[in-house]
Write a structure and sequence with these properties.
Layout: H1 2-16, H2 49-59, H3 72-83, H4 95-98, E1 147-148, E2 154-156, E3 162-163, H5 172-177, H6 182-185, H7 194-198, H8 213-225, H9 228-237, H10 248-262, H11 269-274, H12 283-294, H13 297-300, E4 311-312, H14 336-339, E5 348-349, H15 371-377, H16 381-386, H17 405-410, H18 423-434
Antiparallel strand pairs: 1-2, 2-3, 4-5
The structure holds heme C (2 copies).
One heme C binds near residues 93, 97, 114 and 255.
């Protein structure tokens, strides 16, 4: 009886579309009042590979497309630049200081520490007291994402039009150089940020006004052009072109190429399962997959990266320096800062979930340190937000928790209303998360070069 009602329920959910919530169907899920909002966990024997594949297809969960072809010389150049502190004003920080191979291309911190910081990873300290307002995301599978940054401010639309915070300062000539969409454009931005890489004083880049991106980019190319090894690498990466005619778009595109080439990971148990191998998932992972696909998770986490590439408010707390929003200037309105729309306030991009086991802390400001903690957050997320314990944060930012929970909850995605997860469901979802790890992503230390062309030290 139970078996039949579960299947009926699943099929009803597929047919009824995204807003259907299994447990709200009294006819098929006569649960006791206390667990009325918790869907019935699938009984192990009822989950079949065929049904899970059918559910995945219904939710639009698809395999990751292969990474585009990257010229080896371009990826080599990008790797050197990503690890080279010459891109920063005071030559004290590289991209990979915050996107460390040792920490799955994040930094293992809730909020990053930029220029002027000392040490790396969780041990990094900030003598200036400046934190970056958001968590450093992993750089995995960026070729498959239309929106980069937590607020999607580097984005490409369905017609292939790229938008960035630089507007027309990113000239048509520069745009033509960008071969891998948003991934190729992204490196144009951290280099201009004083807090991240450029610094406030003590170097020629810091002296340039904030709104003059072209001067900042040209200044970095002047530095790079003084190093013969780089001139040679650029000319090898772009055959037939002279270094003196190149712009920072050529550097940024190379860093994008490096990310696309070396950080695309499509060989997880889940990928092998989607490709047809029934036993690629353990029995527990199979049950977990079904739970993930029938709960509301996959309404937002779908597609090739397990992100809909859209924006939602899932009731995350706000702390740290913020993005200059609100009367305190310490709030972060997320997507609204890009679109100007009140309806986008507190919305952040749905995080892709491949390799998610490796990429903590979690959420746009890294508020939640463990993966299980993040999944538990979805259970009564309004209460979780109101009772958030700042003790899990870096001692230096604990006192910056903003008392704006009511405003965040006013924008919380309606899908989260009434969601309660039993420990059994949380366990099943954790099992599914463990099927999303590509073994090759577990140890990325081989990516760190021993030497970079500037001769500056490499963080590791
Ligand atoms: C000070 C630490 C820091 C440095 C240095 C840094 N990043 Fe980041 N990176 C971050 C943070 C924090 C974010 C998220 C910012 C946001 O969303 O507003 C981010 C976001 C990104 C993203 C977007 C990922 C996604 O899923 O949307 C990419 C790609 C990236 N950085 C690459 C780079 C590159 C390339 C460089 C060097 C040119 C660089 N970063 C330098 C901290 C840093
Ligand atoms: C309404 C859309 C939505 C639903 C439903 C949803 N998520 Fe999310 N998820 C998001 C968004 C948006 C973020 C990023 C939020 C932020 O940082 O502010 C996120 C973040 C996460 C993260 C953190 C990843 C990281 O690296 O920071 C995990 C894990 C996660 N979701 C798992 C789940 C699971 C499991 C479920 C089902 C119980 C679920 N999500 C349901 C939209 C959703």
């Amino acid at each position: 009886m139970r078996r039949i009602s579960w299947k009926t329920c699943v099929i009803a959910a597929i047919l009824a579309g995204p807003l259907m919530y299994c447990a709200d169907q009294p006819a098929t899920a006569p649960a006791p009042a206390s667990s009325r909002h918790s869907p019935v966990p699938p009984a192990p024997g009822t989950v079949t590979p065929a049904l899970v594949r059918q559910l995945a297809a219904a939710r639009g969960v698809v395999p990751l497309p292969p990474a585009p072809y990257v010229r080896p010389a371009l990826a080599r150049l990008g790797r050197a630049l990503a690890f080279d502190k010459i891109l920063s004003g005071n030559r004290d920080i590289s991209c990979t200081t915050c996107h460390l191979p040792e920490f799955a291309t994040g930094d293992g911190r809730s909020l990053s520490i930029g220029a002027g910081g000392v040490g790396i990873g969780p041990a990094r300290r900030t003598p200036s007291g400046i934190f970056i307002p958001r968590n450093a995301p992993a750089l995995f599978n960026v070729a498959a994402m239309r929106h980069l940054f937590w607020d999607g401010r580097v984005e490409i639309d369905h017609h292939g039009h790229l938008s960035t915070p630089a507007g027309s300062q990113l000239s048509p000539e520069m745009r033509r150089v960008l071969e891998f969409g948003p991934a190729s454009a992204l490196a144009m931005f951290p280099v201009g940020s004083r807090d991240e890489m450029r610094g406030y004083s003590g170097n020629e880049l810091a002296a340039i006004p904030d709104d003059d991106n072209p001067a900042i980019w040209a200044g970095i190319m002047r530095r790079i052009g003084k190093i013969p090894e780089y001139r040679r690498m650029f000319e090898e990466a772009y055959p037939g072109q002279r270094f003196d005619r190149m712009t920072f778009a050529h550097a940024s595109n190379a860093i994008g190429a490096f990310m696309v080439d070396k950080l695309t990971f499509a060989n997880t148990p889940w990928d092998r399962f989607l490709a047809g191998r029934d036993n690629a998932l353990t029995p527990n992972q199979l049950v977990g997959a079904q739970t993930f696909l029938t709960l509301k998770c996959a309404i937002c986490h779908n597609g090739a990266t397990l992100s809909d590439d859209e924006f939602h408010d899932v009731a995350m707390v706000q702390f740290g320096p913020g993005k200059g929003n609100g009367s305190s200037l310490r709030d972060d309105y997320g997507r609204m800062n890009v679109t100007g729309l009140e309806s986008d306030k507190y919305l952040f991009r749905t995080t892709p979930l491949r390799n998610v086991e490796l990429t903590g802390p979690y959420g746009h400001d890294g508020a939640i340190s463990s993966l299980q903690g993040f999944i538990e957050h979805y259970s009564d997320s309004d209460q979780k937000l109101l009772s958030f314990d700042p003790m899990q944060l870096d001692a230096a930012v604990r006192s910056t928790l903003l008392p704006n929970a009511a405003d965040i909850l006013a924008q919380r995605d309606t899908l989260l209303k009434g969601v309660v997860l039993t420990p059994a469901l949380v366990g099943q979802l954790m099992d599914y998360m463990s099927a999303l790890t590509d073994d090759r992503a577990r140890d990325l230390t081989h990516l760190t070069p021993r030497h970079v062309p500037s001769g500056l030290p490499v963080d590791h």
